[in-house]
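Thread title: Can someone regenerate the structure for this chain?

I was given the following input by a collaborator and told the matching structure tokens would be attached. They weren't. Posting the sequence so someone can regenerate them.
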Amino acid sequence: MAAFSVADAQAALLRKARWKPLEFVAWAVAFALPFAMPSHSLLVNEIAIVALFAMSLDLILGYTGIVSLGHAAFFGFGAYVAALFAKLVMPDPTVGLLVAMLAAAALGAVASVTILRGSDLTRLMVTLGTALLLLELANKLDWLTGGADGLQGVVLGPVLGLFEFDLFGRVAAWYSLGVTLVLFLLMRRLVHSPFGATLKAIRDNRLRAMAIGLPVGARLAVIYTVAAGVAGAAGALLAQTTGFASLDVLAFDRSADVVLMLVIGGVGWLYGGVAGAIVFKLLQNWLSAVTPQYWMFWIGLILVLLVLVGRERLLHPSAWFGSKRKVGP
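Best answer:
Regenerated them for you:
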């Protein structure tokens, strides 16, 4: 009976990981946009990058319950590593992307020690402090990072040796979308695995998870490292597709924006990061064009209304992509 129960649980996890028909359509539309709307390719590229960044935060916030206000530390670290690698070592974007991911994951493994103890408030301050330390370090090491002027003159070679980056940004958009899709598939498989189930158990009740013998500390360290690597990949994509890395990639508002995206899209659901990134970037693009000085006010007002009304009262995309689950912060 026990063996049957384990097999049944594994089958249930596999069913959750299966793709729904509309998912294929949504990704196909995303990849078609740079071809159908070349003038908006740069916006598509930016949305793909911030969506990947938001999904990386959701791994630790939505699936594990680790609160963070300094996730930009890994995003920015990946951006600088990719830019420096392209400028000083070799211009191959795929190799630079892998190097940036590994470097950010290594930083996440070191920083994971800081989130194993303390309360949520402690983790907020520690993660924020980590990002601020890296920001100040990047500012002081201007001989390497360019300081306040940023790291300029980053030239990338063709993707896979075949596709040159064009002025319209179509290759950049397809490159970012492709990396986002691959990492999304890996994260989806991870959260719908037995390992992912243990993360949810830790999120729901850490003391109970410890009581049944789960290695809570090891699980938290592993998922924090993975999330840092994914965030580093998002930062690397930004540096590679723009040819520039500045202190902005480590700034506090970068971490705050990605939290807002998850508030909009919902936590504990990878597509929540995607939905939140799309809505946030489109609102930012439109409102900044209409009211350049007050666009943050209107975004804040929309967030307040979202919290007051409740996301569950609105038509939520979860009905299209999967079964019921807990949404919202």
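Residues 17-321 form a domain with the ABC transporter involved in vitamin B12 uptake, BtuC fold (CATH 1.10.3470).
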